Amino acid sequence: MKGFNTRAIHVGSEPDPVTGAVNPPVYLTSTYAQDGVGVPRFSDYSRVDNPTRAALETCLADLEEARHGVAFASGLAGEDALLRTLSPGDHVILGNDAYGGTFRLLTRVFGEWGVGVACVDLSDSSAVEAAFTKTTKMLWVETPSNPLLNVVPIATLSTLAHEHDALMVVDNTFATPYLQRPLTLGADVVVHSTTKYVGGHSDVLGGFVATNDDELAIKLKFHQYAIGAVPGPFDCYLLLRGLKTLGVRMERHCSNARAVAAFLVGHALAEKVYYPGLADHPGHEVAKQQMSDFGGMVSFTVKGGVDVARKVCESTLLFTLAESLGGVESLIEMPSIMTHASTAGSTLEPPVNLVRLSVGIEDIDDLLADLAQALSL
Ligand SMILES: Cc1ncc(COP(=O)(O)O)c(C=O)c1O
What we know:
By secondary structure, the chain is α/β, with parallel strands linked by helices. The chain has 2 domains: about 5-245, Aspartate Aminotransferase, domain 2; about 245-375, Aspartate Aminotransferase, domain 1. About 35% of the residues lie in helices and about 15% in strands. It has helices at about 5-10, 50-65, 75-85, 100-110, 125-130, 155-165, 175-180, 215-225, 235-245, 245-265, 285-290, 305-315, 365-375, and strands spanning about 35, 40, 70, 90-95, 115-120, 135-140, 165-170, 190-195, 205-210, 270-275, 295-300, 320, 330-335, 355-360. The strands form 3 sheets. It has a 7-stranded mixed sheet with strand order 3-9-8-7-6-4-5, with helices on both faces. α1 (about 5-10) packs antiparallel against α9 (about 235-245) and α3 packs parallel to α4 (about 100-110). It is globular and about 70 Å long. Pyridoxal-5'-phosphate binds near residues 74, 101 and 205.
């Protein structure tokens, strides 16, 4: 198998056989001419298939070392398609530090539909074991998690899930396939918000589900066209373009995040720093085994509580106060009020004084100077 960057650039993007164009065209078409009734040349309709979308699906599936990849209009649309393979009465175990939107989808949409959800501390193996019921169909894991950057062992939890005939689902949004490939560690399904690092430029929404399970792939593909939450061809082009630089961007995100974490550890206003690259992070050893680096996200609690944390977030000049993550530009936010507000009152609620940084790829000295001035309250 060729290297990651080579595949990111070439798989699905072979030069056009007619023109030699080195990028796949953006196929802005909703339908395709048919050579006879019911004999389409490519597909019958763009909700079912589109060549630009196919190029993206081929490339990202390859990077995840998956036989199948299905693209969606957003990360949550992909999660929705996957969860629709469940039936009322089924049960899902979710990490108690998952992304708030995943929690909301599971509890308020699928919960209404009759799917049971148990939110557990995934670092406590006996709690995970105890959470399985006869109807558990999925163990849903984010590692590193959003926003506390917890890391859990994919291989061990996959074995546990399989012992209970459940699918192991890993949200690989934070790590990306450049740093971690869950399917090679035993997971059954990988989900992504490609809105984040895959797109990489904060200019597109997207989602992706990858698997080596042929039957599941057929169901996902069915949901993709039967429900219709598909990404448009231009979105697919942007995501494919993002993939080509994913490796180099991740290298820089990782080195900048390492420096930001070191800076915060030494800062008087930072109460606790959450970053898997720190030797005292509880998931550090596992992260070293299953990831090739520690990612671009750093969270920290601020001494002085919620008001001081808010002030820090409103004082940065380079770090933009905004939700989302994974773009080239640095972002800062308060999960309890912003990205994770939907977890209020639940076991998933993050500390109120938590600040989450998506460390971009700007010059590190400028980023550290910005944090220093914002923290000089
Ligand atoms: C870890 C994680 N998974 C899934 C999602 C949902 O993705 P989207 O916003 O593209 O629907 C997000 C969004 O922030 C996320 O952070």
